[in-house]
Amino acid sequence: MTGETEKMPWNLRQCLLVLLGMLAAGYGTALMVRFFASWLPLAYRYLLVGLAQGAAVLGGLHYFVRKKNGLGLEAVGLKAASLVRAIASGLGGGLVLFLLVVIIGSLLQFFLPDQAPQPFTELVINARQPRDLIIPLFLGAFLAPVTEELYFRGFLFPALKARYGFVRGLLGSGLIFALLHLDLVRFLPLALGGMGLAYLYERTGNILTPIVAHATWNTIMILLLYFALRQV
User: Fold this and answer.
1) What is the pTM (predicted TM-score) of this model?
2) pLDDT digits (tens, 9 = 90+) for 94-129
3) Where are the domains of the chain?
């Protein structure tokens, strides 16, 4: 099953433009918050940056997919057909990816101990009660999976595959996905996770599968971290 049309209606230059828009929105919002709203709690800062990046991605996809080419959401893999299968595949795939990332992350931790936690992890570490997880779960289990999968798997991966073939498209989308997380130590598990998400999209042709998988992966991570810290 393929996640692209026979002839790609968008190209890599347009993928780059959407990516640059997302980065500009994220860093621009972060700078504005730093200078004009530094009093905001960390969770709300992440929320504003996440919403800005998400809006940039959705706006870019709307322009290049719908406005420029007159295509619907099915062009980026959002389909109602086989909904149950897509969700079930996503749940199973997300669990497998979670286990894969944990295993590789544990090996990296063994060889590279005492690494600083990811910035997003600070939100969970600082959570003192369940309601403090509302924003981390919204970002990690909904906003990031939806916007990142629509861009990296629904938009970028098909363009890379059309240009370079399936294998290099899979590798390229996973590497770019990991690179943009700006975490050198966890680059490998993130890259493999990104490749796994692209494979799920290729196998089902439905973007809901990697969205659910990504959400499952992030949700398990967040909840395990939160409850593990409560036991310390």
Assistant:
1) 0.91
2) 999 999 988 988 887 777 666 666 777 778 888 888
3) 12-230
